[in-house]
């Protein structure tokens, strides 16, 4: 920090303050974690200065031998960790990994057959008119993904993301009674809609997904099965999600972030079968900027960490902790979507407290509990104000929290919800009892202080 402070002291101060804030706050954001010092150091070094477009051994730049080493190591660890045929470790984030997946599926399933049908042997010899004819012949392809308010992600064909413009989209939801994915309705929708891509995976669904069933449905309608395991990759790596619930043996293409439950650097990755590997490897420069060698080095370190036996214990503890948190909340009468959890997250429905998700999120933050608001199925307040608050346990589990602490965190959350009132009709303003806020803040600080 001293070196940085000599150039721009305000940046050094912000970095230092971020460490203090993360240390002192009770981080319940389901998509965040704490990477190890080895991962952070692998990211902050001279690799950042290197250009390395292409893939290991086939670069558009000279002197990439050390980048080749770390890219190969990251891919090898990823293949071993997840039992995948192929790993592409260049995507800069989860959204980028999904974009690589979409383009590679389009290339493999639409472009290559269209070129073959048109008798094109040499794409470099095609005229602009030939290209235009080919482009039109693609038509608009279809994507079927999980509805946003059921917990899907906006990259799965929704308007705020380019996927909503690239594809004609339809979505599947959850059963209104149980909150669980309605596989029969999904099968029906897939039969009618006949998507090119069936997307499974979520940001806010607190249950396991049956990927074997998803595979059956995809096969029945001729769809490519794409699983976005950004949220639960750590549970797959730690062998908590196995058999029908492990996406890798069932999907054609699996995308993920590397920084959530997997506890690596900020980044993304694509795993796929041999069939999709050549088109996936064209991700850069098709849709990605030059690879970030320093982040690939950190991915290799994180995947090596996840291959150690203790990572399985960590992954199981994430789920045990989420269940203890869920039970703690339910004992206090807090309503949970699906009535509980069997992964790393819990989704509270706060309407019985008379609050929006936005008000609950703000009140919890005032009391030192960092969460994020989230839509619930058929949310009456829409995706901005919401009716839900999402909680996750990967970060606190890294700090060493166990079930007893998580049950107490559930109590603290319920104390805040019970002592917060909406102001009039406002979806934003609220009153939180100051004494309760102070007590919760002090206790939260004590618990995190005991797990530095
Ligand atoms: N996919 C899912 C399911 C996610 O939850 C997220 C992040 O929230 C992403 C993709 C995007 O990841 P990133 O923010 O790294 O682009």
TrEMBL record:
<feature type="binding site">
    <location>
        <begin position="152"/>
        <end position="154"/>
    </location>
    <ligand>
        <name>(6S)-5,6,7,8-tetrahydrofolate</name>
    </ligand>
</feature>
<dbReference type="GO" id="GO:0005829">
    <property type="term" value="C:cytosol"/>
</dbReference>
<feature type="domain" description="Serine hydroxymethyltransferase-like">
    <location>
        <begin position="5"/>
        <end position="108"/>
    </location>
</feature>
<keyword id="KW-0489">Methyltransferase</keyword>
<dbReference type="Pfam" id="PF00464">
    <property type="entry name" value="SHMT"/>
</dbReference>
<dbReference type="InterPro" id="IPR015421">
    <property type="entry name" value="PyrdxlP-dep_Trfase_major"/>
</dbReference>
<dbReference type="InterPro" id="IPR015424">
    <property type="entry name" value="PyrdxlP-dep_Trfase"/>
</dbReference>
<keyword id="KW-0028">Amino-acid biosynthesis</keyword>
<comment type="pathway">
    <text>One-carbon metabolism; tetrahydrofolate interconversion.</text>
</comment>
<feature type="binding site">
    <location>
        <position position="274"/>
    </location>
    <ligand>
        <name>(6S)-5,6,7,8-tetrahydrofolate</name>
    </ligand>
</feature>
<dbReference type="InterPro" id="IPR015422">
    <property type="entry name" value="PyrdxlP-dep_Trfase_small"/>
</dbReference>
<dbReference type="InterPro" id="IPR001085">
    <property type="entry name" value="Ser_HO-MeTrfase"/>
</dbReference>
<dbReference type="GO" id="GO:0019264">
    <property type="term" value="P:glycine biosynthetic process from serine"/>
</dbReference>
<dbReference type="GO" id="GO:0030170">
    <property type="term" value="F:pyridoxal phosphate binding"/>
</dbReference>
<dbReference type="GO" id="GO:0004372">
    <property type="term" value="F:glycine hydroxymethyltransferase activity"/>
</dbReference>
<feature type="site" description="Plays an important role in substrate specificity">
    <location>
        <position position="259"/>
    </location>
</feature>
<comment type="pathway">
    <text>Amino-acid biosynthesis; glycine biosynthesis; glycine from L-serine: step 1/1.</text>
</comment>
<dbReference type="GO" id="GO:0032259">
    <property type="term" value="P:methylation"/>
</dbReference>
<comment type="subunit">
    <text>Homodimer.</text>
</comment>
<protein>
    <recommendedName>
        <fullName>Serine hydroxymethyltransferase</fullName>
        <ecNumber>2.1.2.1</ecNumber>
    </recommendedName>
</protein>
<dbReference type="GO" id="GO:0008168">
    <property type="term" value="F:methyltransferase activity"/>
</dbReference>
<keyword id="KW-0554">One-carbon metabolism</keyword>
<keyword id="KW-0663">Pyridoxal phosphate</keyword>
<dbReference type="InterPro" id="IPR049943">
    <property type="entry name" value="Ser_HO-MeTrfase-like"/>
</dbReference>
<feature type="domain" description="Serine hydroxymethyltransferase-like">
    <location>
        <begin position="141"/>
        <end position="413"/>
    </location>
</feature>
<keyword id="KW-0963">Cytoplasm</keyword>
<dbReference type="GO" id="GO:0035999">
    <property type="term" value="P:tetrahydrofolate interconversion"/>
</dbReference>
<keyword id="KW-0808">Transferase</keyword>
<feature type="binding site">
    <location>
        <position position="148"/>
    </location>
    <ligand>
        <name>(6S)-5,6,7,8-tetrahydrofolate</name>
    </ligand>
</feature>
<comment type="similarity">
    <text>Belongs to the SHMT family.</text>
</comment>
<dbReference type="InterPro" id="IPR039429">
    <property type="entry name" value="SHMT-like_dom"/>
</dbReference>
<feature type="modified residue" description="N6-(pyridoxal phosphate)lysine">
    <location>
        <position position="260"/>
    </location>
</feature>
<dbReference type="InterPro" id="IPR019798">
    <property type="entry name" value="Ser_HO-MeTrfase_PLP_BS"/>
</dbReference>
<comment type="function">
    <text>Catalyzes the reversible interconversion of serine and glycine with tetrahydrofolate (THF) serving as the one-carbon carrier. This reaction serves as the major source of one-carbon groups required for the biosynthesis of purines, thymidylate, methionine, and other important biomolecules. Also exhibits THF-independent aldolase activity toward beta-hydroxyamino acids, producing glycine and aldehydes, via a retro-aldol mechanism.</text>
</comment>
């Amino acid at each position: 920090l001293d070196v940085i402070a000599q150039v721009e002291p305000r940046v050094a101060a912000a970095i230092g303050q971020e460490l203090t804030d993360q240390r002192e706050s009770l981080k319940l954001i389901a998509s965040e974690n704490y990477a190890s010092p080895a991962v952070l150091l692998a990211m902050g070094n001279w690799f950042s200065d290197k250009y390395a477009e292409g893939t290991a051994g086939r670069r558009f730049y000279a002197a990439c031998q050390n980048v080749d080493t770390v890219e190969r190591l990251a891919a090898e660890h990823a293949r071993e960790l997840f039992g995948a045929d192929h790993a592409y470790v260049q995507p800069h984030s989860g959204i980028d990994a999904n974009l690589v997946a979409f383009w590679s599926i389009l290339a493999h399933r639409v472009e290559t057959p269209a070129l073959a049908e048109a008798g094109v042997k040499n794409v470099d010899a095609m005229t602009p008119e030939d290209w235009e004819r080919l482009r039109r012949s693609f038509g608009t392809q279809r994507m079927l993904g999980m509805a946003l308010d059921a917990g899907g992600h906006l990259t799965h064909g929704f308007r705020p993301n380019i996927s909503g413009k690239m594809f004609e989209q339809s979505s599947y939801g959850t059963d209104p009674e149980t909150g669980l994915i309605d596989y029969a309705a999904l099968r029906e929708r897939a039969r009618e809609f006949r998507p090119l891509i069936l997307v499974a995976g979520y940001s806010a669904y607190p249950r396991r997904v049956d990927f074997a069933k998803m595979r059956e449905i995809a096969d029945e309608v001729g769809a490519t099965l794409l699983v976005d395991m950004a949220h639960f990759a750590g549970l797959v790596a730690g062998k908590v999600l196995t058999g029908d619930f492990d996406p890798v043996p069932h999907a054609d293409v699996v995308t993920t972030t590397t920084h959530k439950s997997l506890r690596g650097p900020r980044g993304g990755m694509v795993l796929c079968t041999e069939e999709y590997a050549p088109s996936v490897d064209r991700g850069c420069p098709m849709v990605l900027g030059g690879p970030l060698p320093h982040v690939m080095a950190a991915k290799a370190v994180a995947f090596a960490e996840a291959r150690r036996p203790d990572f399985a214990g960590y992954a199981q503890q994430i789920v045990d902790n989420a269940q203890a948190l869920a039970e703690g909340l339910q004992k206090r009468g807090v309503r949970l979507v699906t009535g509980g959890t069997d992964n790393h997250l819990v989704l509270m429905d706060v309407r019985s407290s008379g609050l929006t998700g936005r008000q609950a999120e703000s009140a919890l933050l005032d009391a030192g509990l960092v969460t994020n608001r989230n839509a619930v199925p058929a949310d009456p307040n829409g995706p901005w104000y919401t009716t839900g608050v999402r909680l996750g346990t990967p970060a606190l589990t890294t700090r060493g929290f166990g079930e007893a602490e998580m049950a107490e965190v559930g109590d603290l959350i319920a104390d805040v919800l019970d002592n917060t009132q909406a102001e009039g009709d406002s979806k934003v303003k609220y009153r939180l009892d100051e004494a309760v806020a102070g007590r919760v803040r002090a206790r939260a600080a004590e618990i995190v202080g005991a797990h530095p």
